[in-house]
Amino acid sequence: MIVENSEKPLWLVRKLLSTINYKVAFETTNGFEAVEKYSIVKPDVVITDLTLSKSNGLDVLKEIKKNHPESKVMVIVPSEGSQTDDCMNCGADACISHPFKMREFITLITGVDKPTMADSKVVPVILDE
Question: What is the pLDDT of residues 58-86, one digit of tens each?
């Protein structure tokens, strides 16, 4: 699930996920809709921007973690610092500052979505460019 209200970052995240064979189950620009749809969509990972319309990424993170403690949430923050600390303290599995490097994003997202022995997922392989 991608929660992003800016077209360029949304396009970039979508493109990076497709390069590692991840499918986007749901996209929204609205934090309230993301929280509402989480139970229906049941995504492996939520990627949310911190700054959203009609809500914010921190509220999305808190609500999803409150209702689904097993969820995996990665937050895109404008810059490193106190916002990253706030997100991590609220249960974010990872934070990345925007703009981010492709390799950094892929490393973080595959680390967040690391399968357990009980999972039957295929782990994506990242080849050096």
Answer: 999 999 999 999 999 999 988 766 788 89
